[in-house]
Amino acid sequence: MNVHPRSDVVIIGAGPAGLSAAIYTGRARLSTVVLEKCLPGGQILITDWIENYPGFPDGVSPLVLMEGFQKQAVHFGAEIVTDEAREIVPDPESGDPKGWIVRGEKGEYPAKAVIIAAGAQYRRLGLPEESRLIGRGVSYCATCDGAFFKERPIAVVGGGDTALMEAVYLTKFADRVHLVHRRDKLRGAKILQERIFGNPKIMVEWNSVVAKILGGDNVEGIVLRNTVDGSMREVKVDGVFVSIGMDPQSEFVKRLLSVNEWNEICVDERMATAKPGIYAAGDVVDAAPHQVATAVGTGVTAALSAGEYLSKYE
Questions:
Q1: For labelling, which of 62, 133, 178, 241 has a CA lying 20 to 30 Å from the CA of 28?
Q2: Which residue out of 141, 175, 266, 286 is catalytically annotated?
Q3: What's 89's DSSP letter?
Q4: Are 212 and 222 in contact (CB under 8 A)?
Q5: Of 35, 42, 38, which is closest to residue 7 (Cα–Cα)?
Q6: How would you write the pLDDT of the chain (314 residues) with one tens digit per residue?
Q7: CA–CA distance, 298 with 287 (Å, rounded to integer)
């Protein structure tokens, strides 16, 4: 396995949090390696358009936005490497501060400090049509894509707090919201349930799961299967918002770091974990909503904290 030259900072993940951190560590003249298993940009690349990121009153393409992040990080000296982090272990050959080695599929990356910005994955329905129609009516982010469905019928899948909040939010745009829930009772907070039942635009589809998403180039409807009697029926919708949870990509550090009940990495207000020199930011932590702007903020905080940590040893 190849061993990369020791860096000041290794950042795991090239989404908004990771690239924002890289911009700041680069500007601080800290040698920085960013590991990304796929394409730089992160989870927001599955959305069609971003309208809620400051500075873009008309919205911006996620690809264009993240290309700017990447260019800026590289401009300040960050090296972006295609590799997937598998574990973080202490570096026995490091001096003071005691460093870490990020082990990837392709190589090992020693560093004095590590910032974990691996993000989270939206849970999917697992239907064959789902991946093909992402950005063409299938969405995982109501605040990102809701405005594209003005006066059109849509479906929200889920029954927890997030699904209920998104269903209510989407009534600002859609003329009808079908809330699809597999049981006969919602799981979300009572106050959110009251808002659901009090909103004439929302129709709860009880005891139902999405068996199929219909559509060629764009979503045209869904097929619901009744979980009680197995019957099927079609519902015409132009959009499907899947809100059945997110899975933080923290599996590779669960034996090293503390995680909460949702497997989010526990950090303090400085984005520091319990291990000296290891920080975390973005959707993988327990500190912020899953939004681009908050991912950027936590990434910047982690970078500044890592810089302060390393400056003590200069």
A1: 62
A2: 141
A3: E
A4: yes
A5: 35
A6: 799 999 999 999 999 999 999 999 999 999 999 999 988 888 788 676 788 899 999 989 889 999 999 999 999 999 999 999 999 999 988 877 889 999 999 999 999 999 999 999 888 999 999 999 998 999 988 878 899 999 999 999 999 888 998 999 999 999 999 999 999 999 888 999 999 999 999 999 999 999 999 999 999 999 999 999 999 999 999 999 999 988 899 999 999 999 999 899 999 999 999 999 999 999 999 877 788 999 999 999 999 999 999 998 76
A7: 8
Q: How far is CA 118 from the centre of its chain?
A: 9
Q: Tell which residue, 9, 35, 88, has the closest CA to residue 256.
A: 88
Burial class (CB in 10 A: 0-12, 13-18, 19+), 152: middle
DSSP, res 8 = E
Cβ-based neighbour number of residue 164 at 10 Å? 26
Q: Is 169 helix (H, G, I), strand (E, B) or coil?
A: helix
Helix H or strand E encompassing 243: none
How is residue 155 written in tokens? Answer: 């479906």
The CA distance from 41 to 159, in Å, is 29
- Give me the catalytic one of 83, 145, 238, 283: 145
Catalytic annotation on 141? yes
Residue count (the chain): 314
List the helix and strand counts (H, then E) for the chain: 7, 18
Whether the pTM exceeds 0.90: the reply is no
145 is catalytic: yes
- Cβ-contact 88, 101 below 8 angstroms: yes
Q: Which helix (H) or strand (E) holds 176?
A: strand 176-180
